Structure of O-GlcNAc transferase C-terminal domain-containing protein:
Amino acid sequence: MVFSCLNSAYKIEADVFTAWMRTLTRVPESVLWLLHTHQYTENNLVLQAKKSGVDKTRIIFVPTLPKREHLQRLSKSDLALDTTPVNGHTTTVDCLWAGVPVITTIGTHFASRVSASCLKAVGLPQLITSNLSQYENLAVDLATHPQKLLRLKSRLRQQIKSCPLFDTKQYTRNLEMAFFQMHHAL
């Protein structure tokens, strides 16, 4: 099982990282991909993993890649784990576009609700949790029940073909209509 979180490291809060480490502990032989960052930050994350009883080889720092290669790599991940209280924005959309379900925890402000909005837009609201305990349990459930995860991935592949989040032509038409209406309202 390959979990991933390719959000910027500054979004990784201690309680989220602790939930990730508990998840890795509960899902033997799983790994977590994180985006390569400053060596000092990576060392601290590995140290925290070790304190949680997670071997450093299970935390894999991956380099930044050009967009196409980034999306190809993302598609090899099984399940994306979002950050909170600042969710992934572009990162979440990239994961969904690559066909990787994202588990998130919804918060009370804009930056903590972006991933939930994206998941609703692709018809996967069941991946939205209200706290880190639910988040962790959902990650473990999907990781230990591969058929559930495969059904989610299949649904996601179907949804991205027609959902509003990825229908750029319709979005453009709607935006042009809004501009037209604003212009004529003046």
Remarks:
- The mean pLDDT is 96.
- Strands lie at 2-5, 31-35, 59-62, 79-81, 102-105, 128-129.
- The longest strand covers residues 31-35.
- DSSP finds eight helices and six strands in the chain.
